[in-house]
Amino acid sequence: MSITLPDIVANLSLPIDHKRVSRFNILRANVWDGAVRGFKRKTYTENCDMLVRFVDDVGVFEEGIDTGGPRREFFTLLMRHLKDRPIFDGPDGHRFVVYNAKAVREDEYFMAGKMIAVSVVHGGPGPHFLSEDLVQYLAGRPSFKSTVNAITDEEIRKVLREIENAASLDALQECTMRHSSVLQTAGCLRRVTSVEEKKDIVADYVRWYVIDRNSSVIDR
């Protein structure tokens, strides 16, 4: 019997005690800090329902009772803030996790994972800003489709374009030797015997750039 993602989310939400709540008071101008404080509060527990109340700039609670709307809005705003955190890089809609020393010290990767999981379980949006290749990797699937367009470093992108455009074996050999330090860093430097190998060199580098070099924090 196959198990779908909605099945998994439904199973994760089963233990929630809807008679108890974890309270989140969120200032719209600073959603991120409010969320972090809420999740780090000693009284917070994943087994409780969530009660979200928005606060205006002078500390006055907005009118209304949280029957699900404020909670969903909170998670929508939180996902927007999360995609712009320094732990992510890449073009819009195709962002991937990158190493950030400060974020490692502050355990932001674990916090980001918790936020995403809680959002999905409590009816909020998922991390639709993530690269499909990162999602596939996290799901244990070997698929990888990213191209040079995923590379945010302009100089490296130019190097890979040059390799892609090599029209002959001699041109490819000269190009790989000229950029040997870049390729060696990613473990992609090799002795080429066919111009067709340029596709594998570029694909291997892009995978290293998106996944392999960041695996220590992706697996956090």
Automatic annotation (TrEMBL):
Superkingdom field: Eukaryota
Alphabetical UniProt keywords: Transferase, Ubl conjugation pathway
InterPro entries documented for this protein: HECT_dom, Hect_E3_ubiquitin_ligase
The keyword Transferase appears for this protein: yes
Domain HECT: 41-82
Record carries keyword Transferase: yes
GO molecular function, one term: ubiquitin-protein transferase activity
Name of this protein: G2/M phase-specific E3 ubiquitin-protein ligase
Organism this protein belongs to: Takifugu flavidus (sansaifugu)
